[in-house]
TrEMBL record:
Keywords: Glycosyltransferase, Ligase, Phosphoprotein, Pyridine nucleotide biosynthesis, Transferase
Source domain of life: Bacteria
Species per Swiss-Prot/TrEMBL record: Alkalibaculum bacchi
Post-translational modifications reported in the UniProt record: Transiently phosphorylated on a His residue during the reaction cycle. Phosphorylation strongly increases the affinity for substrates and increases the rate of nicotinate D-ribonucleotide production. Dephosphorylation regenerates the low-affinity form of the enzyme, leading to product release.
Protein name as annotated: Nicotinate phosphoribosyltransferase
Length: 479
């Protein structure tokens, strides 16, 4: 890092200035409930892949302010009372966190994280929780769409050099793997995902030798198991391909052809070039050679290239994945839904002229309703935490705005989406590794109708409120 980061100060000033007031107003021990949720699926899509919980856990279980932090705050903020600074000196997260596990498909309005904690703590952690979840959820969703377009071909994340900083590159790589990428070029990501980073070679490597063949040959000497040659530095069909084929044929003759070998295209008409390259490789008896491609690709171009019959079976995706190019921010929010003062519990909602922006009050949970026959998800139901639904009885769900739109479900089962993560400041959750999260997402996608996951005009998944929650919300609005 360029300087030692103080992630505890990676927050907005107003969280601290409000904390300063909570201390002097004796409100710090009020117990607040906050929900973190998205308002819209990104990329005009029909679903979102949640990610970032592992970093949220690490943040909440380690957060503390150092003496250096306190000195910095003292120097710049004479408005902070000594009592507040003393509070920060001893700061620890002592509250509760429930969360939807990473790699789960989530939808607008439903809590992805639910925090219940002393007000000052729940407030101070807001910005960082949003930063982590907004970023990784956005990139995991983008990756999932690209992987879907690739239709089973491996996708490699190549974006670090175009990321908005090294931290975005690192956690973006993690999120891309959660979303289904087979690997990343980011070497630091090996710490997070426990798999080797992957890659090919750059144009500068080839330019550094007097001729292209020599560059290929030298590279092959040090890459006996996995060899990908970049063929477009001078002329793909006239130079790069003949040189690559010459080397592969020589290695084959010497019984030294790596188990995984092939070429990468990085410019030009990828459909045309990949078909021509395939013909040349096949003609030379190199049917196993993999053709990979990169060049400003995204899910739409991958889908389009497949429609054009491109002979590409490995995709390197950089800029448009790591920056979530067509939608650079997710817009998840963190809203208060309940506060308890002197033992009195008050449910809260934020009013807006836009009905979609009115928040849901109370201490809530989310259940996913599955059709037992198809095992597909039908709808999610947000309800009060203590509500119990008898799954043997028919269940009526209704649209929260157009309430006359009702469905009666019979052959269904429910699954609670929020699980306990931290209780009384202590971790109670067995964290899965990134590969397990990736595999969880695969299972999740199998429970979704393609109408929800398709790119164009996806069907809107039902997110309903239970009758009790709907009534409570409307009573609060009327009041
Ligand atoms: N067959 C194709 N159909 C649709 N888009 C394609 C096809 N082949 C390539 N593309 C895309 O078109 C764009 C090509 O852009 P452009 O021609 O500016 O650069 P390039 O071919 O990569 O060349 P250079 O890197 O030398 O500038 C890239 O986004 C690439 O993914
Ligand atoms: O196209 P993207 O999806 O963003 O994928 C990453 C890009 O980064 C590299 O290009 P760059 O020009 O930076 O380096 P190079 O000279 O090695 O090609 C690589 O060749 C890809 O084109
Ligand atoms: O290994 C590669 O081919 C690679 C890595 C980063 C960016 N572009 C390509």
């Amino acid at each position: 890092m360029y300087h030692n980061r103080s992630v505890q100060l990676s927050t907005d000033y107003y969280q601290l200035s409000m904390g300063n007031v909570y201390i002097s107003d004796d409100k710090k021990d009020d117990i607040a409930v906050f929900d973190l949720f998205i308002r819209k699926n990104p990329f005009k899509g029909g679903y979102t892949v949640c990610a970032g919980l592992e970093q949220v856990i690490s943040y909440l279980t380690n957060i503390h302010f150092t003496e250096e932090d306190i000195e910095l705050l003292k120097k710049h903020h004479p408005e902070f009372s000594e009592e507040f600074l003393e509070y920060l000196r001893n700061f620890k997260f002592t509250g509760e966190l429930y969360a939807i596990p990473e790699g789960t498909i989530v939808f607008p309005q439903e809590p992805i994280l639910r925090v219940k904690a002393p007000l000052i703590q729940a407030q101070i952690i807001e910005t960082t929780l949003l930063t982590i979840v907004n970023h990784q959820t956005l990139i995991a969703t983008k990756a999932s769409r690209i992987v879907q377009a690739a239709g089973g071909d491996p996708v490699l994340e190549f974006g670090l050099r175009r990321a908005h900083g090294t931290e975005a590159g690192l956690y973006g790589a993690r999120a891309a793997i959660i979303g289904g990428c087979a690997g990343s070029s980011n070497v630091e990501s090996e710490y997070l995902v426990d798999m080797p980073s992957k890659g090919t070679m750059s144009h500068s490597f080839i330019l550094s030798y007097d001729d292209e063949y020599e560059a290929f040959e030298k590279f092959s000497e040090h890459n006996p198991d996995n060899l990908t040659l970049l063929v477009d530095t001078y002329n793909t069909l006239e130079s790069g391909m003949p040189n690559a084929i010459k080397l592969f044929t020589k290695l084959k003759g010497e019984n030294k052809l790596p188990k995984i070998y092939g070429i990468r295209l990085d410019s030009g008409d990828l459909a045309y070039l990949s078909k021509e390259c395939r013909k040349m490789l096949d003609k030379a008896g190199l049917q196993e050679a993999v053709i990979s491609a990169s060049s400003d690709l995204d899910e739409y171009l991958v889908r389009d290239l497949k429609l054009q019959g491109a002979k590409i079976s490995l995709w390197g995706i950089g800029t448009k994945l790591i920056t979530a190019y067509d939608q650079p921010a997710l817009g998840a929010v963190y809203k208060m839904s309940q506060i308890e003062h002197n033992g009195q519990v008050m449910n809260k909602l934020k009013i807006s002229n836009d009905p979609g922006k009115i928040t849901n009050p109370a201490y809530k949970k989310v259940a996913r309703i599955y059709d037992k026959a198809s095992n597909k998800a039908l709808a999610d139901l947000i309800m009060l935490d203590d509500e119990i639904i008898d799954e043997t009885q028919p269940l009526t769900i209704f649209h929260p705005v157009y309430t006359w739109k009702k469905t009666v479900l019979t052959n269904y089962r429910l699954k609670d989406l929020l699980v306990p993560i931290i209780i009384d400041g202590k971790l109670v959750y067995d964290k899965p590794c990134v590969k397990e999260i990736q595999s969880h997402l695969k299972d999740e996608l199998n429970t979704m109708w393609t109408a929800i996951t398709r790119f164009t005009n996806p069907h809107e998944y039902h997110i309903d409120l239970s009758q009790k929650l709907w009534t409570l919300k409307n009573d609060l609005l009327n009041a």
